[in-house]
């Protein structure tokens, strides 16, 4: 059976190292995993007034999440937390009250940064948010990728380091098991 994965990349920039990490994971994933990159750049800033009549772009986001079997969050670290654009998308899909689109979907959180912490603190914040949203997040392996050199992963998701490739393959294998275990 095919599993569809809704991928959230928490960076909007073209050369994003997190987008490249997401593409690398997609390349390593088994045939039966279909990655759907969820656009978050066209969303309005969440406003609780939306709950009286949800904007079309927000409804479309919720539908994309609901149609997915599983979630993959690939987050940069901005000032020791997740970027606002990613939190905004999560807030939108979690509402209106009582219609949290994420509930019960298996997920993983990974990320990359320039610094030696590899986005670890952003990921930890995100795990806290997802716990509240009733999302079972894969605990291990944690993936904190440090881009010491910008060509670690290229724009097509090709990985220059054999160690990094092996490590990410281990992650993907565990993630695939995690998804299969939660999806009927
Ligand atoms: C950063 N960066 C950063 N890195 C880090 O390791 N810890 C941090 O707290 C921060 N804080 C931070 C704040 C802001 C506003 C910016 C713009 C950047 C650096 C960050 O890791 C780097 O810009 C990455 O390239 C961002 O990921 P993308 O956009 O390449 O995916």
From TrEMBL:
UniProtKB keywords: Flavoprotein, FMN
Residues annotated as domain NADPH-dependent FMN reductase-like: 5-146
InterPro entries recorded: Flavoprotein-like_sf, FMN_Rdtase-like_dom, NAD(P)H-dep_reductase
Residue runs in coiled coils: none
Single Gene Ontology MF annotation: FMN binding
GO CC, one annotated term: cytosol
Cofactor(s) required, per the database record: FMN
Any Pfam family hit: FMN_red
Cross-referenced Gene3D superfamilies: 3.40.50.360
Record's keyword annotation contains Flavoprotein: yes
Descriptive protein name: NADPH-dependent FMN reductase
Species whose genome carries this gene: Dyella thiooxydans
């Amino acid at each position: 059976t095919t599993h569809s994965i809704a991928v959230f990349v928490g960076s909007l920039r073209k050369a994003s190292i997190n987008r490249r990490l997401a593409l690398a994971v997609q390349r390593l994933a088994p045939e039966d995993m279909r990655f759907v990159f969820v656009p978050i750049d066209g969303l309005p800033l969440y406003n609780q007034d939306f709950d009286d009549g949800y904007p079309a772009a927000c409804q479309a986001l919720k539908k994309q999440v609901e149609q997915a079997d599983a979630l993959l969050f690939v987050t940069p670290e901005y000032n020791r937390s997740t970027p606002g654009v990613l939190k905004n998308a999560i807030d939108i899909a979690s509402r209106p009250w009582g219609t949290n689109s994420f509930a019960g979907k298996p997920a993983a959180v990974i990320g990359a940064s320039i610094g030696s912490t590899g986005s670890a603190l952003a990921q930890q914040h995100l795990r806290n948010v997802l716990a509240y949203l009733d999302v079972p997040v894969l605990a291990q392996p944690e993936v904190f990728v440090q881009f010491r050199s910008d060509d670690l992963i290229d724009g097509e998701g090709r990985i220059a380091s054999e160690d990094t490739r092996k490590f990410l393959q281990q992650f993907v294998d565990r993630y695939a098991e995690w998804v299969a275990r939660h999806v009927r």
